[in-house]
TrEMBL record, chain A:
Family to which this protein belongs: Belongs to the binding-protein-dependent transport system permease family.
Cross-referenced PANTHER family: INNER MEMBRANE ABC TRANSPORTER PERMEASE PROTEIN YDCV
Annotated protein name in UniProt: Putative spermidine/putrescine transport system permease protein
Subcellular location: Cell inner membrane; Cell membrane
TrEMBL record, chain B:
Gene Ontology cellular component list: ATP-binding cassette (ABC) transporter complex
GO molecular function: ATP binding; ATP hydrolysis activity; transmembrane transporter activity
Location of the ABC transporter domain: 4-236
Keywords: ATP-binding, Nucleotide-binding, Transport
InterPro entries linked to this entry: AAA+_ATPase, ABC_SmlMolc_Importer, ABC_transporter-like_ATP-bd, ABC_transporter-like_CS, Mo/tungstate-bd_C_term_dom, P-loop_NTPase, Transp-assoc_OB_typ2
Gene3D superfamilies: 2.40.50.100, P-loop containing nucleotide triphosphate hydrolases
Annotated source species: Salipiger thiooxidans
Protein name: Spermidine/putrescine transport system ATP-binding protein
Automatic annotation (TrEMBL), chain C:
Protein name (record): Putative spermidine/putrescine transport system permease protein
Keywords: Cell membrane, Membrane, Transmembrane, Transmembrane helix, Transport
The keyword Transmembrane helix appears for this protein: yes
Bilayer topology annotation: Multi-pass membrane protein
Organismal lineage: Bacteria, Pseudomonadati, Pseudomonadota, Alphaproteobacteria, Rhodobacterales
CDD domains named in the record: TM_PBP2
Transmembrane spans: 24-46, 85-109, 116-140, 160-186, 214-239, 268-292
The species this protein was found in: Salipiger thiooxidans
GO biological process: transmembrane transport
Length: 265, 346, 300
């Protein structure tokens, strides 16, 4: 009985792991395929599709856009998020108001990305603002902010208030307490939220799809539109590079803060 | 080092009917180790936070060496404080933690390094200066917190239940160490605890607090040997309270009249307490004052045996004494050493 | 204690200057959210109550519910709602089973293996959505790995179409959402004293009974938050249905894209947005309320 159970269990586990990893492994294998189409088994090993991807201005240009956009959105969203988290955690608000504020600040996580994009497109067009960079930046700050708020709030809730009192009794002014004690202690949490927001922004397609224009596109959308007409392994090469980048980013977050804290509720 | 005086300090928190600190006046002499002792919620921590400047009194005056510091920011009071949670800065090394207060005072790097090294030597942590707090044991963290508070050469050292998180053995070691350091440096210290043994071990002077007020103040010997109120007596581990009357230093209770112990004063209705450890039992009537009781229970506890006796009045008395061979159901005479008898008003 | 002679005459301490409340720090972020999210979404919802007019995006025209009537009177429109619901429901159900299994695998794994298993379980999340979807296209395409394998094994004679069907959408969605579910359940599992299942076993409970009678009830909170997260993510997913279901995936989100980017009938599109938001809210609140009722007796 128990051997049957464990056999069942082992095959089940293996099947689940294959399901989780197969598409990722397939992408990497196809990316080093020498042939012109994503064939299986591959027709020999080659890095030519990496070269092709890096030489394609549609990819490189949009990759730059995505990087700058993610950086700007993170740079703007992080201070807004940290300030909001401070206000919520330290504002001594009645709990109902506090709950409402938290719900509002985390609402971008619930509102579908495509709705955010459409709503921004419609209102900004109505207001006569049609600049793709402006639209994208506003939308992406919205994406980054809740992650920063979430990690900062968690860190503020476990923050020992006597740390600040200790600094105060040792002669620190309010500003010195903030810059020398409070912010440094919160730094890993803020950094992790910002890094996660950066990845979300960099990876976003649903919000951006309505906000780009003919001359400005982000990398995920450039790949999507390339995929409509081409199926060659250069997409696999780009995808593999993206896998490497996100994996590196995730490892950094994991080292600094622990990944589980963001993904759980 | 400085003398700190509290005059009629009162503090009421919003939404609370009673005052957390209720008209407290107290002097902490220069170089003395004074402990505020009491159960949680008695106002001892509120008092300490007012002295530290972390909270402002609603009423009253706080002086340091005659200077009014009631409204002085904590940052300028020149205090050293050890927190219950220790509050070590987790992102700084041991040396950086200790140097923080010096840095805030604008002391130059070389002088800072010398002072930090000396402070760490005092707490015997010189070899761990480059570590971060989370790499240290509980006792070591404790010492860092102490060094950080001492290095600024504070006018007063304030300690808020600093040992409550430690296990018993480590706590005793740290108590001895704190005693040694404060007496060596001649520091004025204000200590808060709910642990009476800790207070007796460390203090020159103990202030027992209850419901925001000072219940009794005195040396450990006075507080332990002659509690003046039932609250203090209970808090110092006394039990066996019996109603009594005192008439011109003749003390009568449970049908017995004896002389009022010299250390106590009361007139009219009062309460007597018999320290369980100072009682002895025998089957025959001893000389001097004694009560007769019916032995209800005997629980062997190794070094001593705990006896429960019913008095004719129906009240119960507990005695902890060496095994006397009496068995439950027997009659027994209860006698006491002079120090075991306490009496106080009401 | 009596006042000493040297004590000064006590006086009432003046009321301290009230510092500015830190609550104001929420203001910049709040303004941003109001102007960039709440007002635009509100505007869009209001737009849905204006007569349909392709190309028009201003507030002109009388208030009307004609757009809603149009949506609910034509099967071509309202079927997207139904399809979105059942694809999301099926995705959520499959994700719940697989995610629960993975959570149990992580929970019972030895500490040495645990790190690796967690990494594998999280891997779909750590990879760009486009890269992940492309991987599935390689796997499931007509000449993809799965079809080639099945052909080689002789299970099928002709390649079967998987891509551009609801099955492909569901596979793609389950793949990304399984980590969320596994983590939510794991959070609940980790709160269970490992002695509790052991105790149940000493009373003669089988493994299956332990799962059904002990673990499942105790993990309701985690399961519920997993279900809400996964369902709301599934309902609002755009990239996976668009790429794996094709332009005619029949999902609400791809339909929204068409209305706003192709047909340019923004006022009718606003109806779809409003319905999508309403659906998300209703589902979220009902699942949370249900879970609260199920755990009300033993959890605080």
């Amino acid at each position: 009985m128990s051997t049957y159970f464990s056999l069942f269990r082992r095959t089940g586990t293996a099947a689940l792991f294959v399901f989780l990893l197969a598409p990722l492994v397939a992408v990497i294998i196809v990316s080093v395929n020498a042939g012109a189409t994503p064939k299986f088994p591959p027709e020999g090993f080659s890095l030519r599709w990496y070269g092709a991807a890096l030489a394609n201005p549609a990819f490189t240009g949009s990759a730059l856009t995505s990087l700058v956009l993610a950086a700007v959105a993170t740079a703007l969203g992080t201070p807004l998020g940290v300030a909001a988290a401070f206000g919520i955690a330290r504002g001594k608000l009645p709990s109902s108001l506090r709950g409402l504020l938290e719900a509002i600040f985390l609402s971008p996580l619930i509102v579908p990305g495509i709705v955010i994009g459409v709503a921004l497109l419609v209102t900004l067009s109505t207001a006569g603002l049609r600049d793709a960079w402006l639209r994208l930046t506003l939308g992406h700050v919205l994406l980054v902010m809740p992650y920063v708020i979430r990690t900062s709030l968690a860190a503020l809730q476990s923050f020992d208030p006597s740390l600040e009192e200790a600094a105060h009794t040792l002669g620190a002014s309010r500003r010195q307490i903030l810059t020398r004690v409070t912010l440094p202690v919160l730094r890993p949490a803020i950094f992790a939220g910002a890094a996660f927001g950066f990845i979300i922004s960099f990876d976003d397609a649903a919000v951006s799809i309505f906000l780009i224009d003919s001359s400005t596109s982000t990398l995920p959308l450039a790949i999507m539109s390339y995929m409509q007409y081409n199926f060659d392994p250069s997409i696999a090469a780009v995808s593999s590079m993206l896998i490497a980048i996100t994996l590196a980013g995730a490892l950094v977050i994991e080292r600094v803060f622990g990944l589980k804290k963001f993904l759980g509720n | 080092m400085a003398q700190v005086t509290l005059s009629r300090i009162t503090k009421r928190y919003p939404g609370s009917e009673t005052a957390a600190v209720d008209d407290v006046s107290l002097t902490i002499p220069k170089g003395s180790f004074t402990t505020l002792l009491g159960p949680s919620g008695c106002g001892k921590s509120s008092t300490l936070r007012i002295v530290a400047g972390l909270s402002r009194p609603d009423y009253g005056v706080l002086q340091m060496d005659g200077r009014d510091i009631t409204h002085l920011s904590a940052a300028r009071r020149n205090i050293g404080m050890v927190f219950q949670s220790l509050a070590l800065f987790p992102h700084m090394t041991v040396a950086e933690n200790v140097a923080f207060g010096l840095e805030m005072r604008g002391i130059g790097r070389s002088e800072r390094e010398t002072k930090v090294a000396r402070a760490l030597d005092i707490v015997e942590l010189g070899h761990l200066a480059a570590r971060h707090p989370h790499q240290l044991s509980g006792g070591q963290q404790q010492r860092v917190a102490l060094a950080r508070a001492l290095v600024v050469e504070p006018s007063i050292l304030i300690l808020d239940e600093p040992f409550s998180a430690l296990d018993r053995k480590l706590r005793e070691t740290m108590q001895i160490e704190l005693y040694r350091i404060t007496r060596d440096l001649g520091i004025t210290a204000m200590f808060v605890t709910h642990d009476q043994e800790e207070a007796l071990t460390l203090s020159d002077s103990i202030v027992v607090m209850n419901q925001g007020r000072i219940e009794q103040q005195g040396t450990p010997r006075e507080i332990y040997g002659a509690p003046r109120t039932r609250f203090t007596a209970e808090f110092m581990g006394l039990s066996n309270f019996l109603p009594a009357r005192c008439n011109n230093r003749a003390l009568s209770f449970e049908g017995l009249t004896t002389e009022m112990p010299a250390a106590f004063e009361a007139e009219g209705n009062c309460t007597v307490a018999l320290r369980p450890e100072g009682l002895s039992l025998s089957s025959t009537r001893p000389e001097g004052a004694a009560l007769k009781g019916h032995l209800a229970e005997a629980i062997y506890q190794g070094a001593s045996t705990s006896y429960t006796l019913d008095l004719p009045s129906g009240r119960r008395i507990t005695a902890r004494t060496t095994d006397c061979g009496l068995l439950p159901g027997q009659e027994a005479w209860i006698a006491w050493t002079p120090e075991a008898l306490h009496a106080f008003a009401a | 204690m009596a006042l000493t002679d040297t004590a000064p005459a006590p006086r009432a301490a003046p009321a301290p200057r009230k510092p500015v409340s830190p609550a104001w720090l929420t203001l910049p972020g709040l303004c941003f959210l109001v102007f960039v999210l709440l007002l635009p979404v509100g505007w869009l919802m209001a737009l849905s109550l204006k007569p349909s007019m392709p190309g028009a995006f201003t507030m002109e025209g009388d208030w009307t519910i004609a757009n809603y009537l149009r949506f609910f009177s034509q099967p071509f429109y309202y079927s997207t709602l139904i399809k979105t619901l059942w694809v999301s429901a099926l995705t959520t159900g499959i994700t719940a089973v697989l995610g629960y299994a993975l959570a149990l695998i992580i929970w019972t794994a030895s500490p040495a293996k645990r790190g690796w298993i967690v990494l594998i379980v999280l891997s779909p999340l750590l990879v760009s959505i486009v890269a992940r979807t492309y991987g599935w296209m390689i796997m499931l395409g007509d000449r993809g790995i799965l079809n080639q394998a099945l052909l080689a094994l002789g299970v099928i004679e002709e390649p079967i179409q998987i891509m551009y069907t609801s099955a492909a959408v569901i596979v793609g969605l389950v793949h990304v959402f399984v980590p969320f579910m596994a983590l939510c359940v794991l959070t609940s599992l980790e709160k269970i004293d490992p002695k509790v299942p052991e105790a149940a076993m000493t009373f003669g409970a089988s493994r299956w009974a332990v799962l059904r009678r002990i673990l499942l009830p105790l993990t309701v909170p985690g399961l519920a938050s997993g279900l809400t997260i996964v369902f709301s993510l599934a309902i609002s997913s755009y990239v996976t249905p668009a790429l794996m279901g094709g332009p005619r995936s029949g999902m609400l989100t791809t339909f929204i894209y068409q209305q706003f980017a192709v047909t340019l009938d923004w006022r009718f599109g606003a109806v779809l947005v409003t319905l999508l938001l309403a659906l998300t809210l209703v589902v979220l609140t009902s699942i949370l309320a249900l879970a609260a009722r199920m755990t009300a007796t033993w959890s605080k």
